[in-house]
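> forwarded from #structure-qc
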């Protein structure tokens, strides 16, 4: 019985970790506006530093394909906490690079 509970608990933790790494990728939300939302499997309390960096890297890569740079329109961050994953939502557009 105890072994069964341990396996069930381990399976639940594994599924939670996989779900916790969720990302939307780049999604067009309007004319020339895009959104990237990411959740972190981060354990404990704290800001979403890692997923914020990943979101900006993904946005920069997306805009660079057009020879442009990222302009942040809106950045929302949720710190991780008890039963809550750290998360970032980045709304941006691609603009011409400054000289």
């Amino acid at each position: 019985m105890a072994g069964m509970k341990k396996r069930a608990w381990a399976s639940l933790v594994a599924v939670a970790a996989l779900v916790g790494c969720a990302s939307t990728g780049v999604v067009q939300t309007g004319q020339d506006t895009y959104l990237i939302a990411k959740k972190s499997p981060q354990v404990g309390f704290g800001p979403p530093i890692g997923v914020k960096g990943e979101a900006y890297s993904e946005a920069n890569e997306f805009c660079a394909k057009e020879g442009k740079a990222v302009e942040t329109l809106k950045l929302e961050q949720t710190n991780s906490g008890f039963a809550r994953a750290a998360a970032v939502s980045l709304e941006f557009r691609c603009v011409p690079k400054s000289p």
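QC bot note: Confidence is low (pLDDT under 50) at residues 3-20. The CA atoms of residues 3 and 9 lie 10 Å apart.
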